[in-house]
Here is the input.
Amino acid sequence: MEFAIALPILILLVAGLLELSRGYAAAIATSDAARSGARYAAGKTAFTDGPGMLSLCKLVTADLASLTSNVSCPLAPVGHAPPFTAGADFTSPTGGQAVVAVYCGISADCMGTANTLRESEIDVYVYYGFNDLNLFGGSITISGSSKAMTAW
Here is the structure.
């Protein structure tokens, strides 16, 4: 009798722990992808003129391959520094989708300019629509972000 009463509670606890671990893994993946993108762009010099948005998006998409293949990465960066607003600066991700938002400092396309720029800011945000098993209410947006200073 006691086991029958305790079993549903134990099942909820175990399922909750599994969902938290899945969510944590998604949070790590989004943060790693954002960090890789920012580091990639920041590592470019005046001689390479920066990577551009297309290359940055390809890198972030490759980093998220184990998490999702549905990645929305705009080819135009956000025109202002973070924080970004869902709906205005990026489209909120649906379940299982990742959305990337990038701010390139004073560069319009993360390509740098003929004049060497030092300490130009680049921010890469990755938002992931995490679908839980309705233990915590359904779809949750998990975000990962990274900021780096460029020197191209």
Q: What stands out?
A: The beta strands are 71-72, 98-103, 120-131, 139-150. The CA atoms of residues 106 and 120 lie 7 Å apart. Residues 2-42 form the longest helix (41 residues).
